[in-house]
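Longin domain-containing protein
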Amino acid sequence: MAQKMLIYSFVARGTMVLAEYSDFMGNFIEIALQCLQRLPATNDKFTFNMDGHNFDYLVDDGYNYCIVSVESAGRQIPIAFLERIKQDFTNRYGSGKASTAVALSLNREFGPKLKEHMQYCMDHPEEISRLAKVQAQVSS
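Tokens:
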């Protein structure tokens, strides 16, 4: 896919970013962090829209997963990305390492994983869309 739809992501414990990834520079990083400060602690999904970008968040048990995407990316691929990184992060760090990690201390390990998941979601949008539809059906 020629256009980069997914441009920045991070995983945070509360408001402390543990790992992040982006190929780009821009004020979207500061905006994403400002939005993070406003998230309620309830487990849910949230979207903020600003300057042609969507800021999607998945809040789950004290951890916040974020993806910033271009508005034209829609909602399915970013939300599927958040579910993928939540699962991967939980599998890797659910046994406790993330609960004591300091800011950006997981960046070296998990930053490349964020990049891989972003690339996979952009390279396989049809598969991601199909999976999102199935998950939606299972949820309902």
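The chain has one domain: 6-139.
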